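FAD-binding domain-containing protein, [Torrubiella] hemipterigena. Tokens?
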Amino acid sequence: MLHVIISGAGIAGLAAAVSLRRAGHIVDIYERSAMNNEVGAAINVPPNASRFLQAWGLDPKEWRFVTARLQTFNDPKSLKPFIINDLSAAQTADTAKLYLAHRVDLHNALKWMATRPDGPGEPVRIHLQSEVVAYDPDAPSMTLRSGEVIHGDLIIGADGVHSVACETVLQRKNKPIKPMHANFCYRFLIPTADIEADPETRFYNENCEGGTRVIPHSDGKRRVVSYMCRENTIHNFVGLFSDDDMEAGTEDWQASVDISEVLKRFSDFNPDLLKVMAKASEAKQWPLLYRSPLETWHRGYMALAGDSAHPMLPHQGQGGAQGMEDGLALGIIMSGATSKEEAKERFKIYQQVRHSRVSVIQVLSNVGQDQLNEIRHEAARYMPEDRIPSNQQEVRQFNFHFDIVDASIRAMRQYDPSFELPSDFFDRPVAGVPNSDTLQRKTSNLVANAAKI
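Tokens:
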């Protein structure tokens, strides 16, 4: 049994805590905020994450997740769909599903799984208003802003996009780069009831449960994405755009702008869509900055997870899921480790399992699924080109069908042929990977003459 100290109680930090708890270790998380005013928009919980979250006991209905069924690409002038992707094709009873969740609901579910008094292992302790300002990966220890030094056997740095942990591991800054297309986005939420109450906007609620609309402009620099969350009671909107005259400062989810600025930015989109967007009371403006994949994720007795290791843009909807995959892998790989020296060696396995896959997704997240060919050459630095997706269906297969549980266990059995997970690591069987032949047959890409959705 090891004592693991984690910086950051975000999605990746909590997922790592759940997994390491179930592996039999003692876990303390140090979080800089008071966690009493959680904010955020919606988030995808795709099959590559939902399969192990549900095996850990998460009930999507209890946490008000929406089951995704459809993705459409809609014309910005007419709003008519010109591509329809049936996301429900592979979502049979025995496979994992794609869910759409409010970020706060997902965060609360992970926090419950980490700290619940019942279940395997000891409940995780979360220390609030405890900002980590420095790390010593060789001690190992973390120093809080108060001056207190926290010691443990292992450190997991999950302190987000502005990571001090990352700088400690790299021993340099990980400088952001301007992205290829959109360099800003607006995020805002609109209650379904507000849209329904207005005869001029209620069309947007029609047949939209579980649907994601992607509305790209022909200029290639602007697009609106929307989908529902929290039991279909809220529409989540993201407006992506590029503006070379605006200065991209700190990546801050809290920077508010008046909704009139959003409407002005997308003024040449369909006027009925603008009436819907006008229902928002305010929007958050978030600069989009890209960081290249890291050469290493660990140093000494310390490893990175989530945005600390691989901050990525929102175009593929995989940022949160990749942080949760990190957390799952850490628990499996550290199962049975009895000394910090042994665990330090296992960090190499963790990077082996995670680095190539996440680096490819990080690169592909620079563009939308309809712009992949612009970026595949860069992704080929991390994986053979014939394994890198080249179209929307291949992206879904690459992202959704990967089984991090199987990959982690196989890596551990190469390290130790006698490796076995604790019998209570999961509460129930892990959902299988959808059969790709079935998907090839069922997933439809319909064009032009589809009915308005």
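The mean pLDDT is 91.
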